[in-house]
Write a structure and sequence with these properties.
This protein is mainly beta. The chain has two domains: about 160 residues, Immunoglobulin-like, CATH 2.60.40; about 150 residues, Sandwich (Immunoglobulin-like). It contains three helices and 26 strands. The strands form seven sheets. Strands 1, 2, 4, 5, 9, 10 and 12 form a seven-stranded mixed sheet that branches. Strands 3, 8, 11, 13, 14 and 15 form a six-stranded mixed sheet that branches. A hairpin with a 2-residue loop joins strand 1 and strand 2. Helix 2 runs antiparallel to helix 3. The radius of gyration is 21 Å and the shape is globular.
């Protein structure tokens, strides 16, 4: 970035630190657990364009009830951030990024819970920041359970072609959809051009949204981890379009878009293991057992639409 761009970003950071905004995340307590009281869900946000960058102000504070905050303290932790997106705080530098940043922020800091982060990127597209609140203490000093879900903000930089909608796993999948990864790829003339990965989030305004700086006719491939891919041919990339994805066939453990002996052996070797987010746990119930084995056997030999 040039000196002018850096100056613009610095001035924006300074201004944001002093102002309150309608879409500030207000952290409080609901049902004995930490939560974001409002806005719920977060609306899709448009990033401001400045020379050399796109910027978005994201404010945070405690939720006040009857003139008093519901919390004494909590920590905001990052759960997911899109590559190329960075969140900063005036006077503190970069706080949130893919790698090398603290990726957490304590409320209060510097004697106040009211802060503003500036998220920035250099390239048009759709960006995501996911967060949770943990380590909460209510105003009466009683510990509060961690936030049981993930809060998402979609940020749109520029004017990319956007796809959004629902993500439905196989009917026997009972795990947390957020533990899976959705990959959406754009192909033109048979060649992969662009792709975007994200965990589907049923608590967001849309479970998924992706953006591509590409227009015209294209093939769109979507793949959900552990599932075979789906394909949408002759799709016109343009403004904003809703595309709901259904993934009826699970059992692709190694992600090669074929359910074969490699997947079967992987499940057999892990048979009996228990735990959260096990790769070999096809149905997401926390145990690698006969149900997972039967799913692989039942779908054995199937190939994803994106590999045909």
């Amino acid at each position: 970035m040039n000196r002018w761009t850096l100056a613009v970003i610095f001035m924006t950071l300074l201004h944001a630190g002093l102002a309150q905004h309608e879409n500030d995340l207000l952290f409080g307590v609901q049902g004995g657990a930490l939560t974001v009281i409002q806005p719920q869900p977060h609306p899709v946000r448009t990033m401001a364009a400045v020379p050399g960058a796109f910027l978005l102000d994201v404010g945070v504070d405690f939720y006040y009830e009857g003139g008093a905050p519901q919390l004494r303290s909590c920590r905001i932790i990052q759960r997911w951030i899109s590559p190329g997106l960075v969140g900063s705080r005036s006077g503190m530098g970069q706080l949130f990024c893919v790698s090398g940043c603290p990726n957490f922020f304590d409320l209060p800091t510097g004697g106040t819970a009211h802060h503003h982060f500036i998220f920035s990127t250099a390239t048009p597209g759709v960006y995501i920041w996911d967060c949770q609140a943990v380590n909460g203490i209510a105003t009466d000093g009683v510990p509060v359970s961690d936030m049981p879900w993930v809060y998402r903000i979609y940020m749109v930089a520029g004017n990319p072609a956007r796809l959004y909608g629902e993500v439905s796993p196989a009917s026997d999948y009972v795990g947390n959809l957020y533990s899976l990864t959705l990959t959406v790829q754009v192909r033109q003339m048979g060649q992969p051009l662009l792709s975007q990965n994200l965990p589907p989030n049923v608590d967001a305004i849309y479970p998924y949204m992706v953006g591509f700086n590409r227009t015209g006719s294209a093939t769109v491939i979507a793949k959900l981890s552990k599932h075979l891919s789906r394909r949408l041919d002759n799709f016109t990339l343009g403004d904003v379009a809703r595309v709901d994805w259904q993934f009826p066939y699970a059992g692709d453990i190694n992600g090669d878009d074929v359910i074969d002996d490699a997947d079967l052996l992987t499940v057999l070797f892990a048979f009996g293991q228990t735990g959260s987010n096990l790769t070999e746990d096809v149905n997401g119930d926390g145990t690698v057992d006969d149900a997972d084995l039967l799913t692989v056997l039942f779908n054995f030999g199937l190939v994803g639409e994106g590999s045909r």
